[in-house]
Automatic annotation (TrEMBL):
The lineage of its organism: Eukaryota, Metazoa, Ecdysozoa, Arthropoda, Crustacea. GO terms for cellular component: cell surface; postsynaptic membrane. Residues 70-145 form the Cadherin domain. It is found in: Postsynaptic cell membrane. Its main location: membrane. The keyword Calcium applies. It comes from Lepeophtheirus salmonis. Keywords: Calcium, Cell adhesion, Cell membrane, Glycoprotein, Membrane, Postsynaptic cell membrane, Repeat, Signal, Synapse, Transmembrane, Transmembrane helix. GO terms for molecular function: calcium ion binding. This is AGAP007103PAlike [Tribolium castaneum]. PROSITE patterns: CADHERIN_2. Belongs to the calsyntenin family. Pfam families: CLSTN_C, Laminin_G_2. The keyword Ribosomal protein does not apply.
Amino acid sequence: FEIIFYKMFKYRFIIFFTTLHLSTSHKINSNIFYLETHGNTGYHGILSENDVHVNVTPPIRAIGELVCFFEIVRHHHNNVDIPFEIEVWNQDAGTALLSAINPLNCEQIQNYQFEIEAVSCSGTYSQRIAINIRVQDVNEFSPRWITNSNPKIELKQGQIYNEIIKIEAFDSDCSSKYGDICGYEIQSKGHPFSISKNGVLSNRKILNFSISHSYILPIVAFDCAMNKSLPLLVTIQVKRPCSNELWEGIASRIDYTPGTGPQSIFSRASLSSCNFLSSKLYPITYKIVVKLKTRNIGKGCDRNTYNLQNQRQLCGANTRSINLLTNSLDWLNIFETHDKQKKEQPSMIKLNGNNGAIIPDEILSNDPLQKKFTLSVWLKHFRNGNKHQKEHVMCKADDHRKNRHHFGIFIRNCKLILLLRQTCKEGEENIFRPAEWRWSMPEVCDGEWHHYALNMNFPEITLIVDGEKWINESNNPEIIDDWPLHPTKDLKTKITVGACWQGSEGKLKHGFDGYLAGLTILPGINEHIEVLKCLHQCAETLQVPASLDISQGTEIIINTGENIIVIDGNDRNDITKLIQQVAYLNTQEFPSAGKRTVAINTRVMYSNNNKTILLSNQKTEINIISVPEPTIKIVGTDNFFREYNDFKLGVRILADLHIIISSNGAYSNNNKMESCSIHINPALNPDHEELNVPESLLRMLNIEGKVSDEGVNMDGGEMVYNYERVLRQVTYTNKKPAYYLNRQFKISCSQMENRFISNEYVQTVSCHSLLNLFHKL
């Protein structure tokens, strides 16, 4: 009955029988039926975490009778569930198989202890034998970091740190082989750091800010089986050595691509926390001046989009202004042009203190320099020789016998001086009137280009320097009164540029040393202030956002020229925020490639001792990337024929001319042209040949046209299609066509101060009747 019951209800029987076993005494005969241990006191089992079969030593075996089953006996003092099962493996041999019900976890319980016994088919029980099972670890876990964040550490340069930081990892595996951290490793190369097996980071070499500002070290931990953790990124910041430089994170250079709009210059700038800003000195105010410097290009700004005359047109300057330095004036040929600008700026003249010139009377008639006028000029003064010597930009003086100066604008002792002597009226011979104004300013002798404009409305005068209206100060300008000049019937005057005429000696003296450009006079009226400001306006500017979230007490000022920004305040965060938003903008389509410099000048004023520290300037170079330049092409019917009588009446030689401008593969005639010329070789014979231009159209378009026997020169910023209109109406007349079978006209045009020049288009004109006659002969 027992055997049949066992086979049919094995598991139920085990439960029943076990219960019975616990509640009744068993028939035990260890001499007849027993578990074999080979002299050991018990069994020892090993089980891997990823397995369920227990390897038992010695093997479990019942001897003496036929075994029906084995059972696990829990110790009465052990409340832990026993997650094992045992079954007969070979009934004839009496062996058993011990298994885990499910895979076990060494990290939870590493050892299990219980007893087993065998039950024969006759109901005899063997002795109970203890078994000790050890769960063997599998390397299933990688090391992990105790910290959840990547450390960032700031270190001073010039020191060796034995312990910068100690980092620590752990491994969840239960064994020492897989669960102990055996070392740490820095995975990157080329750094002066090392890490010990205990996780202590140190530097082998002295740190140097100039070599590297920061290091990012990927560090891994590994267990004794070389299983590695994920990298921990340790950032080492090397502190800038404390000096008189307040700013950190200012780039030495940035690149700017034209057409990309405003670009931040100091996006990573921040105020230093060096020691000289702490201790007993507590800053109350910062004053920071950001200045855009463009001294290396032209007149201190990239103004080569339009020449000076065209710039005046764009600014809406009064058309009655007299330009004394236009390149159409022959008397200027005595002057040397700017070395680097011979083609680009023919109206920019170089003076050396000895080469002034007399302005012809027909250019300045009716004495324009009286009580009301505007005078403006670009000048670059060289501070050479005797600073007490007068250096005249322009002068009006007696033509002979006397040396009386009626008018003058000159430099002396690094002051800009205007002289204007009035002619006395009857009854006012002994009345003193203002006659000389002396402005003291650094611009006069700094060797840079500056724009000066004087609005005279005697006795009131307004000075505009680089687009900024001069604010009078105490005794600046100095105003000197003088007697009026008495009229003399036998004396006339000479007006000169670059020096002053000495009538008694019959020569020029007091010459100017430097460059002049754009010298203009508007007689009888004053130019609008906004126009004079516009003449200095630069396409390159510094920008800040229109709306800024800054606290009360922080102030930002931008000058009219938008090349200087002044920031005042005592809030470090506001100062940093403002500096980070300063941007460079270049609105030109084709600016001159090369470098511009932006400088930061910083003053720190302290409260406890009224001490002021002036920190060294810091600079960023802005590199303007070169962009593809436009091409200008003139096309048309390069050969055409006309009848004999047509030439006598006049023919339009460029009737189908077209000017094509392309940029980046796109074509357009909506661009502006600055000049076009028609060259004839050999020159016209004025006895029977002439070239005529549409005068009324030129006046309407404000294009200056100069016709000579050698051709036509046209100057003035105007749209391409309007230049086409003018050129198509140019007529050639020949009263004796037989003198030339073929006449050639060479046409070229240019933009942006001759930076971009067209091809030389050759138009050949032939007399049809004469050619037929020639072929018949």
